[in-house]
Each structure stands twice: as structure tokens, then as C-alpha cells.
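Record type: monomer structure entry
Structure origin: computed from sequence
Chain ID: A
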Amino acid sequence: MNLIHVGATIVICDGALREIDSGLAPMVVRPMTVSASPQRLLVLVASPRRDGNSAMLGAAVVRGAQAAGSEVSLAFIDDHLDGLVRDCRECRDDQGRCRIEDGFGGLFLDRFLPADGVALCTPVYWYGMSGQAKVFFDRMFCYFAKSHAGSAQVRERIKRKRVALLTSSEEIYPAIALGIVHQLQEYARYTHSRFIGTVHGWGNGRGEVMRDPQGSVAAAEALGREFFERPYLDLQMDTVR
């Protein structure tokens, strides 16, 4: 017999997303022949508001991914972060481990790295990503740097994911989120990942994105549904054609 843990469950209560840890107790299952495992999608919400526009876009991605049969979970980044990245040369313990004792390690190692795809949902703050999103990427360095004992495994597992970006703001001119798009594109390039799409939602007050005349919620749901099927092509000069 095998032991498996049930993953996080996402529910909507009073219009707000809630993340429930249903993996506290293991389930015992008997071996059986099954088809290929569904691909795993992690939706990261980088907003402090649980019922805000970024959260609504994240919920739409979850609905779409579930409809397509993907294994999907959602996390609010600031539930797992208590501090900024530090000087790793001073912070690490004698075995090279990070000394920042918050939930980032669990989120990154147990949910981000095993995922086949990651969708980042962030409000546009000062024409860039939110602090929560930026700190998430900064804190990766604690595990990516060669001074971390497991960095070789981290560097291998961080590669070749599908990534997508969902942004929201009151302003809707075409270049409003261009800085964030460029940053995620460079992240994808560096990690040999595939940047498969973006969605931008209009809204200022909480939940206004649901009334976005451009249909960003429907677009986010379609992105989730097509996450692992959406065509991607990035030609290089030596690409065989």
C-alpha cells in the first residue's frame, strides 16, 4: 500500500477565496493501474486582499484548470512570507540552510517546484508587480544559490515550467503592465520556461474586475482551461523548421 497526502483545497466563502490545508492526515490507498497523472498548476495570488481583483482572476484560472482536469491549487503569497531576503552569507546555518523561519520554504519546495505550471496574479503597484510577488522571486535565491545544500536539485526542478501572468489595475492603457510582462518574460527565458500568456483586468474597487467590459474574468478562465494545451512558439536562429 502507498501513503499519499491530499493537497490544498480552494473554496469560495462569502465571495472570498479561502485556502484549506487538507493534507494534515495521510490517506492509505491500494495500488491500482491509473492513467497518466494530471498536470499540476499552482496559482499564486500576490495581493493582500482576499476578495480583490487579483484574487478573482486567480479564482477564474482555478475554475478553468479544474474544468480541464488539471490538478490545481491556489496560494496567497503573503500567507507564507514574513520577511525580505537577507544576506545569505550571514543568514545560513552551518548546513547551508535558510534561517528565515516562515512558510516560504514549504510553498517554494513543496508546491512551486513540483508544479508543471505557475500562474502569477498581481495588482499593478507603481507600474510594477506587488511587493509580495517581488519578494517571492527574491526569496527563491535562498534556495537557488550554490551556497544552499540542495541548489543543484532546485536548479533542475525550477526549469521548463509553463508560466502565465494575470494583472489588474484601474488604468487600462496598453502598456500599463508592460514592466511586469517583461520581468516575467526574462524569468521564463532564464529558467528555460514557457511564458504562455497574459490577462489584464480592469478594476479599482474590490471585485470590479467581474464587470470588466473587456471580459478579463472569462479570459482568465480560458487561460486556466488551456494552460497546458495553449500553443507556444519561440523561434531561435537555429530552430529546425
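Annotation 1: The first helix runs from residue 53 to 67.
Annotation 2: Residues 1-16, 20-35 have pLDDT under 50 and may be disordered.
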